[in-house]
Each structure stands twice: as structure tokens, then as C-alpha cells.
Amino acid sequence: MDIATLVGLIGTFTLILIAIGSNLPGFIDPASVVIVIGGATLTVMTSMPLGRVLGLHKVVMKSVFTQSNDLKGLASKLVEFATVARRDGILALENHIDDDTDPFISTGVRMAVDGTDPQLIEKLLFAEIESLADRHKNGKAICDLMGKYAPAFGMIGTLIGLVIMLSNMSDPSAIGPGMAVALLTTLYGAVMANAIFLPIADKLAYYSKEELKARMLILQGVMAIQSGDNPRIVEQKLNVFLAPSERGGHEEA
Amino acid sequence: MDIATLVGLIGTFTLILIAIGSNLPGFIDPASVVIVIGGATLTVMTSMPLGRVLGLHKVVMKSVFTQSNDLKGLASKLVEFATVARRDGILALENHIDDDTDPFISTGVRMAVDGTDPQLIEKLLFAEIESLADRHKNGKAICDLMGKYAPAFGMIGTLIGLVIMLSNMSDPSAIGPGMAVALLTTLYGAVMANAIFLPIADKLAYYSKEELKARMLILQGVMAIQSGDNPRIVEQKLNVFLAPSERGGHEEA
Amino acid sequence: MDIATLVGLIGTFTLILIAIGSNLPGFIDPASVVIVIGGATLTVMTSMPLGRVLGLHKVVMKSVFTQSNDLKGLASKLVEFATVARRDGILALENHIDDDTDPFISTGVRMAVDGTDPQLIEKLLFAEIESLADRHKNGKAICDLMGKYAPAFGMIGTLIGLVIMLSNMSDPSAIGPGMAVALLTTLYGAVMANAIFLPIADKLAYYSKEELKARMLILQGVMAIQSGDNPRIVEQKLNVFLAPSERGGHEEA
Amino acid sequence: MDIATLVGLIGTFTLILIAIGSNLPGFIDPASVVIVIGGATLTVMTSMPLGRVLGLHKVVMKSVFTQSNDLKGLASKLVEFATVARRDGILALENHIDDDTDPFISTGVRMAVDGTDPQLIEKLLFAEIESLADRHKNGKAICDLMGKYAPAFGMIGTLIGLVIMLSNMSDPSAIGPGMAVALLTTLYGAVMANAIFLPIADKLAYYSKEELKARMLILQGVMAIQSGDNPRIVEQKLNVFLAPSERGGHEEA
Amino acid sequence: MDIATLVGLIGTFTLILIAIGSNLPGFIDPASVVIVIGGATLTVMTSMPLGRVLGLHKVVMKSVFTQSNDLKGLASKLVEFATVARRDGILALENHIDDDTDPFISTGVRMAVDGTDPQLIEKLLFAEIESLADRHKNGKAICDLMGKYAPAFGMIGTLIGLVIMLSNMSDPSAIGPGMAVALLTTLYGAVMANAIFLPIADKLAYYSKEELKARMLILQGVMAIQSGDNPRIVEQKLNVFLAPSERGGHEEA
């Protein structure tokens, strides 16, 4: 679970509430809430297929509950597999795959064990990675669109409020409060975009990049194992995916 | 038919009408409508060839009435064809193509049956996909341009209204209503761009991506059938185009 | 001649004049015209070589008077040439080239007839296309820059007007008209960019894409003829450049 | 140490303080500080993993304390190594590597001495460079995000201030000061983004580019040494990384 | 010397001075000049290494004093060299290189005469071109950054001015002039960016493109000479770099 997302979201809203303080009642206007949240959500529906929009909450949850990839653990596992394959033959790997093994490793290793053509293994694993990147992009796209249309409907709401206020200026003392209400939708749109959807889209992009990197590490590892590389070479090939501080002690060259 | 586009469009306008409520008469100004819609449409005419602009309604309709691609069905069909080709020879496929077959599959399979050079088949099918992508882009471009020029003419209309109002400030009580009218064109431009044309352009981009993906799946399938791949390999190659949840039960490796 | 460009430009200005109506005198301020048009043009002179800036009118004219490419006609011509080359040998093509032949076809076919190395033909024709794309980009760049600097000088003019007005606020009744004049430059800049230069840049980009596509079609055709392809294959290769509705009846596969 | 970063940062703030002058007390508002700095930092926490955000100060420090790469020195060192390898054989290089040698040179040369396959050396060194580029990008990303969200929270703070002020307009003399406070957050956001985080991100990008260039120089040098190139050829190959004024006197061709 | 840059710069400032007219004293505020020019320059110092910032005047001068490349002359020279090489052998070229020869041609031809491996010649010349492109980009980057930070400090100055003015609103007659002064920094920033630095960056980009094109022409020419191409083929290969109107009379095919 990503505590930072939660702290970030809750902290930002706490700060905003503190800044508003005792003026809170003046900041709550149901009609303004409806036009910004409703308008942005309905417009995202025009922009994307229904299924995607209905899955928005899952995408948001993902930004909180994603597990980080343990690149170092994956690299060790693959070096271990390379050692086994070198010592006992590649078929021996079958017994080392169990339910705890990363499914992408299992798929790759099983294809290698089955004697699938190496070029086909590489092509299939790579296509799988591209396909995953694509699904990630679609998830992020919903947040991007909410971040794009929320401020737009904030502005539309403010324009509507201004036109109404300016058309009925008989009572000058009503101008201030009228304008305050008109500005609320701009505020709502800015908060929705900048405190929720855009940063969540950033976090999803970060997780996507990390997960794709983990898959590329596995792809390199499986290809190295398949071609019978020396475990030390496998380690060297996988170490480049790790930050220098995470690298194993074996590597010295 | 894409119910989401329709719900999105109708819902957004309903929301805006509710927000305006009884002030509706103050929001309708024929001159403002003409300058924003007319100005944006005429400017798009300067930007694009006439034929494209006249086809705008078709492009908009497409965002409502496009049929989603059934990637899983296409994959099954191609695996079925691969099984037939493997069992009865590639010429046997001719009898399995009928009017219900996707025309892109028919074209590809017919070329394979005719013994066309595989590289030429791939080149032609790929060029066809690129050409389709190009036509899609042109359709979307009209919506993009409407979404770009509508707010610009909204601003031009507001500037014209402000200059007129500011030049005749003898009656202070007319300032409010004058400014209200001036702001209307900005509102119209913002609504046209953000509630109609930009989200429709987003949806068209989504459909284009889906359709190109379906074509790439077919291209891969035809090439695999042509080269006499084992149906199980064909399935593996096509499965990467599907979300994991849609994949067939055969795949286990 | 591209009637749409003309209709778009004239129509937009007619609309703007109608919106201004009887207030026209208040919208004409020679000093504001000079700072926006002069400032933008002089700044484009800083941005680009003199020759380019002086050729601006030619670029604008091109957006009105360009002839659309007849892709279908080009394809037919090349298929016809392929038939001749197949039947009577490639040297026979020399007699079929006359002054009506597209000069890019003539160049390509003449090189083929002269027995120039196919790779060199492809390289030279492709370099020619890239060079044309480059010249197109330079023409469009002037319009892009006018569209970028006109609003900037509109804003600069408005800031100058505001500073003058705010420094001399002794007579409150002069504030309105002073601000009206200050806003005029912003209006001029917005109109110049959005009603003239940006849409003309869009149209030039469109024409460039079409012309480059025609050249790519010819390149493919000449290479196919040179390599002695069957005319039916040549037709298939060129058809991918055409919209499905434009394709010839021969193609059935 | 990069004196320019320090001079730039301190100088800019000195200038701003001079411009504010004796009005300083009116420019300090703790609540505004909290919403802009706090809001931006918490939102970056939503956008990025916790570890990255906590490392922000290190990234900022790096923009001040990075050592420039001595490309000329690296090139000379590699030419010297090429001379040794040519004269005494590549194994002789082992004695020339010591703790002062750039670790990237050591890694590369050691692999060459160990007889590692040249293609593998190139692949590993290149992957190392890509991995470094990636780590650099992640460091810069924090500054980019601070530069993006600080102005956003500046605007959110101003909107909150305006709504509070407009809702309580009973005392007209309080409007000015109220609006002054409301604008403070916009000012804070603009200063944080434009005087601190965006320029630091620019500087980090510059350093990253320089360091990657140094690594590419080393990669080219190691590969040239490994393939037994004549030292003069090695020098020619490495000179292209240097500005003409930095190049050695040997080069004459 | 590029007269257009000079005319553009001087002309734009003349226009602005005319628009300001007798109000000039109200437009000069030393504190505002310091915050915009000083703030932008110091921030560029944070963004870039010191040496680059101190070289800013050289970069600006370059936009005025650059000599255009004579592509046609370069092409003729290379065709002439090809004729000599064909007739008298490549070694004969040595006598045709003198101090007037473009140094990039000399370098290339000398390597060819020395019998350097053609692939190495191409690699070295190409790396030289990339390295030049890189140096050009760095020069342009300073202007880009000035163009980015000048308006930012214009806005910061205006915000500071507004806060000071709004905090001391006891004398309503001081509001106008106070706001006039506050707007001055925005004006300065807009003029610095749009009349000086952004167009100069555009011009530098243009010159860079032209110079890189000249180098690519030379690279192609040297490679063609080295491989012993027929002078007519060399001319054809180089003509693609010239506009059709500049091409020599030889070319007829």
C-alpha cells in the first residue's frame, strides 16, 4: 500500500479546510458541486467508453494500494534460476516454479522449458509488455481527462454565475456574495484537478514505468537463461536495472 | 451504438440548463451564437478542405454510432482459420470466407490463398492500416479545430462586446447587463469546446486506436496462418492483443 | 482554387463586421493597427530571414490557389505505365512522357529508363520529397510565427494603453473609452491570429501532407515499374494511398 | 561546486526583497505560506513515491554541488590507455587502473581486460547509461512537479482568499487589504516555481546531459580500445565530443 | 550580416516608442527594470552554467552577424572536386584544398585522401554534425530561457506592486498610478520575451538548420567523391539539398 498517496490526498484537503476555517459554510454550494463534478464526469463519458468511466474508482484505488516491484528480488530469483538451469539443465526449472513465482516469470520460463523458439518467446513477452503498457495508459487516461475537464467546467460554472450576477445588479450589496459563489466552481475545478486527478495520474504513470521496468528485467533474464548464459553474466545483465546501491556483492567487474 | 457519448452529451447540457435555471432568457443571444458558431465554422473552413467541413456531422455521428470491435471474436475466428489451414491446406480457407467475414480478414486470407508473396501481403495490409489511421486522424482533426477555434471566437466576441460597452458608459446601470452579454460568447465557446468537440475528438481517438488494434491483430493472424503456424501458436500470438480476462482457456503456458 | 479558404476568410470578417455593426468607428484606431501588424511583422523579421518574410503574400495566396492532387489519376497513370513497361519494355516509356506528365513522374521514370541503380533512384526521389517537405514547413512557419506574435503584440499594446490610461485618471469619464481603446489591440491580435494566420497555417499543413502523399505514391509506383512488377500488383500497391471509395474496379482480392 | 546556482538563487531573492522594501511585513502571511508550500509538497507526495519526495533536498543540493565533467581529461586518459593497450597489450591496462580512475572507465576497461564479448560490453555499458539517464530524470521530475503544483496551489489559495473576502464585503475599506492577502499565495507560487524549482530542474537537465555525454565518450573510448584502434583514431573518435576549442593538437586531418 | 534581425529589433522598439509617445516618463521605472531584467538573468544563471550565461551577448550578436550558407557554391565546389578525383585520382584533391576551402570540406576530403576507412569518415563527420547541432541548441537555450523567465518575473513584479498598492488604499487617487507602475513589469517582461529573446531564438534555430543542412550536403558530397561516383551522379545527389530554382543546368533527368 502506498501511504504517500493517502497522506498526500488527506493532507492536502486538511490544509485547504484549515485555510478556509470558519468560513466553511460559504464554501459549500450544492449547485456548484453538481456542475463541476457532474459536468466533468459526464464529459469524460463522452470522451471514453462507459466501462472505463465506471472503472474510475478502481483506477484511483490502484494509486493507493499498488505494491511496489521488488526489482532486486526479481533479479536474485532469475540469477538463481540461471544457476539451476546451468547446473541441472533448463528442464529442471519446471520444479522451481510454484504459485509464489511471479506469473510473468512463470510464463517466460515455461515457454523456455517447452522449447519454444527463442525469437517467439521474446516477441510474445515483449508484446505482453506493450499490451500492459497500453492498459496502464488507458487507466491513467481517465484521470488525465478528469484533470482536464474539471477546471473547464469550473470556468463554465463561473461564467454562468457571472452572467446571472451581472444581469441582476439592482442590489449592489449582492455583488460580492454573487461573485463569491461564481468563483466557487473555479475553486472546485482547480482542487479536483490539482489535488486529486492530476497527481493520481502522475503516480499511476510512475507505477506503470516501474512495473514495465520489472517486466523488461524479467524478459532479459528469461532470454539470458534460455540462451544458457553464465549466471554471473545474467547478474551483470540484470544489475543495470537496479540502482547501484541495490546491486549484489557478486558484481565486481 | 455508444450510449455513453449520448448520455454524456445530453447529460452535460441538462446540467448546464439546470444551473442556469430561470435565468435562461438572459443566456440566449442570437448575435453571440452567430459569432461563435459561425466564426469557428468559417475558420475551420479556412483550415481544412470544404469536403471535410461538410462531413463534420458524419464525424460527430460516428462518435455515437460506432460499433466496438470484438477482439476476442476476431481472435477466435483467426484461430479457427488456422486450424482449417493446418488440417485441410490453406486453399480450403476460401470456402470459409463469406459475407459475414470481416472484410479485412477476407482481403488478407484471399491474398494468402492466391499465393501472394508473404512480404507483399504484410506490406499491403500494413499500408492499409496506416491509410486507415490517416483517415481517422483527418476526421478527428475537424473536431480538434472546432475545439480550438470556438473558444478563440468566444474571446473575440467578448472583446467586441467589451469595447462596445466601454465606449458607451454614459449609463452606469447598463454596465452589468452589457458585460453579461459580452461574457456570453466566452461561455458559448467554452461549452462548445469542452462539452462537445474536444470530448468527441477524444472518443474518436479512442475508437481509432481500438480499430487499428483489431486490424493489427488480423494482420498478425493472417501472417501466422500464411506461414502455417500451429493453431496454438497463433492463439498465443493473438492473445497478447486481449486483456488477460478475455483470453481463451487453451492458453496455459 | 480553394474556394473554402476564400469563403472562410471573407465570411469570418463579414461576421465580425456584422457583430460590430454601427459601432465600427470605435473599432478603428490607426495607432493600434500599426503596433499589432507592424510589431508582429517586424518581429517575424527578427525571427526569419528577410526573403521569407517578403514572400509571406505568396504563402497566403498559395492557401487560396493550390490545386488539389488527383491521387486517383496519378495511380491510373502509373498503372498504365506499368502495363506499357511490362508489354514493350521499360525503354518504351520514354515515348509516353510528355509535357502533361507530372514532373516528378517524368524524373523518376527517366531515371528508370536511363538504367540508374534502383537504390539510387529511391534515395534521390525520397530526398526530393524530404526537401519539398522542408520547403513546405518553411512556408508554414511564417504563418505560425505571425499567429504567435500577433496576439503577443496585441497584449503589449493593451498594456501600453492601460498604463497610459491609469496614469491619467483625473477624469473618471475617460476611463471607459480609454480602456476600450486599450482592448482594441488585443482584439486585433486575436483576430489576426485566429481568423487569418493560424487557419492558413493549418490549410498549408493539409496541402503539404496531401502533396507529400502524392509524391510517395509516385515513388512507390516508379519503384514498382522499375522492378518490373505485374500491373495488377502495382495497382494493389498504389490503391492503399486511395480512400476505399476511390479505388479502381480491378482490385478484388 | 556550481557557484552560478547559488548566485542565481540568492541574487533573485535579494532582488525580490529589495523590490518589496519596507513593505515586507505585508508580504508575510503564515497561512498563505502553509497552503502553497504545504499543498504543493503534499500533492507531490500523491504524485511520487515517498522516498523520492524525502530525497528532494538532496536533488536541490545536487544542483549546487555537482562537479562539471572534464571531457577533455577523460578523452586524454582514454587516448593514453589506447596507447598503452597498443604498445603493451590490453592486459597491461590493469595496472593503470587505480582509485583515481573514473569508475565507469574502470568497469569498461576491466570487462575488456577480462575478455568479455565486445557486444556484451557495449550492451552493458549502454544499459548503464540508460539506467543513469532514468535516475536523473526521476530526480528532475520532483522539481518539475513542485514547479507545476506550486502555482496551482497559489491560485487555489487566492481563490479561497477571494471567496472569503467577497462574502464579507460589509466594510469596503477592508477590500484592498483582503485582496492583497489573497494575491500573496499567487505570488508565493510564482516565486517558488520560477525562482527555485523550474530553474533547478533546468540545471539538473543540463548536468544530466553533460554526464551522459561523458559516459558516451567513455563508451566510445572503451570500445575503440577493445577493438585495438590506433590511438590517433581513438583521439579522432573522441574529439567529436569536445568543442573545437578544447581539442588536442594532435588532430590535424 | 543579417539586416533583417537588426531591422526587426530596431523597428519593433521604434514602434513601441511611437505608441508610448509623450507618455514616455511614465513608462520608465528603474525598480521595475531591475526586477524583470535582473530576476530573469539571475534565474537563467540558476538554470544554466555560468559560462553560458556570460556568453549571452555572443549568442545575440550571432543572430545579427551570421553569414548565410551558400549551398549552391558548396555543391559546385564538391562537383568540381568529384571531377578532379575522377580524372586525376583522389590524391590530386590535396592540391585543390586551400585556406579558402570550407574547413568541413577540407577535413572530409583530407580523410578521404589519407585513405581513412569510408565508414569511419562518415561516422566522424556525422558525429561532428551532431556535436555542432548540440552546441547550437545550447546557444539557443539561453534565449529560450530568457524568453521563459522574463514574463514570469514580469508577473512577479506586478503581483508585488499590486500587493503594495492594495495594502495602502487610503488614498483612492493613488490607485490608478499605483496600478500603472505595477503593470510596467508585465509590459517589460512581454517586450523582452516577444520582441527580443523569442524571435532571436527562432532566428538561431533557423540558422542552425541551414548550417546543419550545409554540413549534410558536404557529408554526402565527400562520401560520393570517396566512393568514386560519376560527377553527374554527385551533382544529382547534392541537388536535392537545393531549391529547384537554384539547381545547376546539368541536371536534366
TrEMBL record, chains A, B, C, D, E:
Residues that span the membrane, as ranges: 31-54, 149-167, 179-201
Top-level division of the source organism's lineage: Bacteria
Pfam families listed in its UniProt record: MotA_ExbB (PF01618)
Keyword NAD: no
Record localization: Cell membrane
A biological process term (GO) from this entry: bacterial-type flagellum-dependent swarming motility
A GO cellular-component term linked to this record: plasma membrane
Keywords: Cell membrane, Flagellar rotation, Membrane, Transmembrane, Transmembrane helix, Transport
Main location group: membrane
Sequence ranges assigned to domain MotA/TolQ/ExbB proton channel in this UniProt record: 100-213
Mode of membrane association: Multi-pass membrane protein
Keyword Methyltransferase part of the UniProt annotation: no
Family: Belongs to the MotA family.
Protein name in UniProt: Chemotaxis protein PomA
Gene it is expressed from: pomA
